[in-house]
TrEMBL record:
This is S-adenosyl methyltransferase. It comes from Streptomyces griseoaurantiacus M045. It holds the Pfam family Methyltransf_19. It comes from the Bacteria.
Amino acid sequence: MITTGWTVCEAVPMNSSEPTPGEFRDRLQTDRPHSARVWNYLLGGKDNYPVDSAVGEAILATFPEFVAVARLQRQFLARAVRFLVRDAGIRQFLDIGTGLPTADNTHELAQRLAPESRIVYVDNDPLVLRHAEALLTSSREGACAYVDADVRDPERILAEAAETLDFTRPVALTMLGIMGQISDADRPAELVSTLLAGLPAGSYLALSDGTNTNEALTKAVEGYNGQSANTYHLRSPQEIASYFAGLDLVEPGVVPTSSWRPEGEDTGTDAPHVSVAGIALKK
């Protein structure tokens, strides 16, 4: 989709060759639910498969408030980007765990306020990549790129992102819902720390993730994990807060997602507090 004044978000060239159609189908794993596609279904999207919608319905049967919780995260993204652009003066974003494109993506939110903003999306799902190439557009003043990489490979992410972002200038690292997909064995806090180490002073971390504080959500996630190729790991609010170690937290700190600087929009007050969010500055 190309509109006047906008250019297509491009995939950053990879060292490996473009996957063949057969390799692409193999990576899709349409016989197993995938978090990005399940999330898309729960948000009312159509970029999913029957296996994803079936799991989505099972989640809703166990935890009916999940749609409201998902919307809370999208609302937090919007508030976070507005804060980072308007108040913090950020013009560069490294968005890890992009998911399938939806309304008000990071680059749209940022470039609406500052058209010169530059955004790099990172995900390793082939369906996400194809949709990003087709649907994500950038203002002509700014830039938008997509890196096909796993969050468990932070060095590669930084190297690829450097083709679009200027790492001598502050960058906002956004990680919404992605760290729950990382097991303890993969040392999630170290992954965040490594990514931040590659960013200059004046950069920010905006992060939110699901907590293990709600029995119904925990049961729903256990059901999802029993069927999915990529499991999700709920953690305590304290564990999630540890990702911000060594940074200066922006008020109000790490709080329930709906409580991070609400701006008057519907913040899903009827949804239980099952995720926390925060933004912090690297000095």
